[in-house]
């Protein structure tokens, strides 16, 4: 074929090739949209994870779950393709571990009483604009994080409002957290133009009120006490660093320090009574555990735990539950 004939052939084929390329692009787009629709129909769904508590896929780019603890958890997040972690827990995020695996942390804490409207806007903007996929977590991944993921995705237009409650139910959110369910039930897509122009600060570490921060520390120590109780009031095999007497001491100190704060002094008398009673029970628990340990004289602890030990722990547990019902978990619109 002569050079002129080749040029003529290429010129004639050009429009045909361009037309075929356009058709292929359209077909690929249709296939992608069908896959996305199918994926959306299958969500929310539980995920399998080795080091992440209660992970739930809420949207193709949003996963709800519990606190990532330790190197293995952050490594697993990176392996899942997560780019941004949003904490709605009061605890200070582990920035060092996140940065080790190239993950960004954003701290937008809220309580068990519901997700405030201002926080809904921030969460929606975060899931809409930050690098994804996004992992939203609280402590256990059962209550606050599914509520946050639910309202964020609905508000950002990623999830239909009728899916909101389903997300909480799948995650196992306790029905007693009326405020969280209320936030999910009332969630609606935010105005597109207003959300687009909204430019919130999305901090790595948020300023948490002193009492809220103290409650976070108390909660973690109380969980240690529960682990010890589950191990017949001895050091748990999986947590050799937990000494029963020391953890009881730390628990008592949490209550003592809380009772000294101006914030607690401004709370209702019933709230303060519960704290004082729990402080006294924690002090007795510390003494009883110490005496029980001393009684063994280097021998294996007796199988029979003194009845007064779980009795004091029950006082603390009962006060904790009552405090949550009457103060912590009251829906925002009923305060």
Automatic annotation (TrEMBL):
InterPro entries: Cyt_c_II, Prot-tyrosine_phosphatase-like, Tyr_Pase_AS. It comes from the Bacteria. PROSITE patterns: CYTCII, TYR_PHOSPHATASE_1. One of its GO terms (molecular function) is electron transfer activity. This is Cytochrome C. It comes from Stieleria varia. The lineage of its organism: Bacteria, Pseudomonadati, Planctomycetota, Planctomycetia, Pirellulales.
